[in-house]
Amino acid sequence: MTTSPNFAEHRIHQTAGRTATLDNAETNGDGYDKLVDVKERITERRRQPPPSTPDGYLHELPALILLDRLPTPMLATGLDGVLIYANPAFATMLGHPGTTTLTEQPLPALLAGYSATPPRDCVTALRAAAAGTVVIDWLHAEGFPVSTVVSNALLVRATDPILLISITDITELIWTSQSHNGSYCPIMSGTPTRWR
Fold it and tell me: Which of 36, 60, 84 is the C-terminal boundary of a domain?
């Protein structure tokens, strides 16, 4: 197979400074650099022997795969108030077909009744609402509020650039409690206050 001089020169510039492999020679410069890096890491991990203990298996699990598989709604937002991660359980809770429609959304677009609130203030409010003391209403895709409580921040260092929290939907619990006309509901005794 012959290659035109221009194509060969183009390939040299695309792979300059990178370790030449068959995979990145085919994809670098086409916008797939990240895909190549991920593919190389997966291939590297597959070449290693499988963990011999359950503890070793847990240490090898990639965090995002684990978060995606959790049945509990999870989200991560940058400190600027823009959603950077939502797991499928969060998307389902808000009636979205997938997580791609949620990522890169500012928090005010997802919080019911807070479209005028600055995104950074929403991050502060989510931190303050931790441990189930305040009810946070999210906007469902069909327009109704979904009442929730949020966990403490799962990343606890002051230098962490994101807020990662789990969310518990209490909408049905609130409806049930209200339908019993104020009768005792063990989970809702000490009812959380609403945010704002």
Answer: 60
